[in-house]
Specification:
The chain has 2 domains: 174 residues, Medium-chain alcohol dehydrogenases, catalytic domain (Quinone Oxidoreductase, Chain A, domain 1), CATH 3.90.180; 135 residues, Rossmann fold (3-Layer(aba) Sandwich). It contains 12 helices and 18 strands. Strands 3, 5, 6, 9, 10, 17 and 18 form a 7-stranded mixed β-sheet that branches. Strand 17, helix 12 and strand 18 form a beta-alpha-beta unit. Helix 4 packs across helix 11.
Length: 337
């Protein structure tokens, strides 16, 4: 089958490899589209602490079931599906408590095992979900990142009328902003520095704050009536945003950490104490987040179509990865086998 194989830092190659053989309770999926994520870029650069070459990347994908080996699943050949790519151990104490998404031994398709940047991919049957007939495979390829955003917003205590601020206007930032807008029906501010991403935010109906123009604290306080954000989502994970978390959030507000910074950044812990702020961490998603994501996209409440900036053939995967690294030229890049 056709595949894009990662061999080490900045070394990916289109290759013919054997089609995966199914084990018990697995399905074989013909991939329609696979998305490029920030985690894929970390792997591509050789900086992911778990990924080992050679490997097929890709944990955001959708396609069609072509084979199944399961006595429990009701999936059928021909079903159009998305995959929740989590591989949990099932034995650690958090798995036994039902919190499989924070399994102590958690692995992911496309990170620890071959993923969806290929003609075919195998996946656990119980993590494979049908999509509605009204949803395209392009849209479905963004169910996984939308589930990330759903989980982030669900982890916050956002309520009707809350004023949210999202730091970072990349793919996850725009999805978090859209989900927060649905959850609160209140104003959502996006802070971004890339002109290209600022324009994408405007196309989605937001009035973003340009981080390059003047004082971000002043602008956020002005838009929030001088109080600060009820809920602040840090999707940038950068030193400049980490330094602003306490200043941008209202007294007894909540800061939600979405991004996974590559290094430690200074944070105003005194500001957190003085304002009695809550700090919440987030990791991936769960079963319910995936199904909520499917429903939000299919209903049109979350617009993923306009976030797809490029669709490229799998054989041009290296070019796609390089394009995805340029925040000023792309939003969501999809690869099509």
């Amino acid at each position: 089958m056709k595949s894009l194989v990662w061999h080490g830092a900045f070394d990916v190659r289109p290759e013919e490899v054997p089609t995966p053989s199914l084990g018990d309770e697995e399905v074989l999926i013909k991939v329609g589209h696979a998305g490029i994520c920030g985690s894929d870029l970390t792997i591509y650069a050789g900086k992911h602490w778990r990924s080992k070459p050679p490997m097929i990347m890709g944990h955001e994908f959708a396609g069609e079931v072509v084979d199944i080996k399961s006595s429990h699943s009701d999936l059928k050949v021909g079903d159009r599906v998305v995959v929740e790519p989590l591989l949990n151990c099932g034995h650690c104490y958090v798995c036994k408590e039902g919190l499989y998404h924070v399994c102590q031994n958690l692995k992911l398709l496309g990170v620890d095992a071959d993923g969806g940047m290929a003609e075919y991919v195998k996946a656990p049957a119980h993590r494979t979900y049908r999509i509605p007939d009204t949803m395209t495979l392009e849209q479905a390829a963004l169910v996984e990142p939308t589930a990330v955003a759903v989980h982030d917003v669900q982890r916050s205590r956002i309520k009707l009328g809350d004023h949210a601020v999202v730091l970072g206007g990349g793919p996850i930032g725009l999805l978090v902003a859209q989900v927060a807008r649905v959850a609160s029906s209140g104003p959502v501010e996006i802070v971004e520095v890339s002109d290209w991403r600022l324009e994408r935010a405007r196309q989605l109906g937001f009035d973003p704050i340009d981080g390059k123009q003047g004082n971000v604290i002043e602008k956020v306080l002005e838009r929030t009536g001088g109080r600060g954000a009820d809920i602040l989502y840090d999707v940038a994970g950068a030193a400049p945003t980490a330094a602003l978390l306490a200043a941008l959030t209202r007294i007894r507000g909540q800061v939600v950490i979405v991004a996974m910074p590559k290094e430690m950044h200074p944070v105003d812990t005194a500001g957190f104490a003085l304002k009695e702020l809550d700090l919440v961490g987030c990791r991936v998603y769960n079963y319910q987040d995936f199904h909520t994501s499917i429903s939000l996209i299919d209903s049109g409440k979350i617009d993923v179509k306009s976030m797809i900036s490029h669709v490229m053939p799998l054989k041009e995967g290296k070019e796609g990865l390089e394009l995805a690294r340029k925040a000023g030229e792309s939003m969501k890049v999809l690869l099509k086998p």
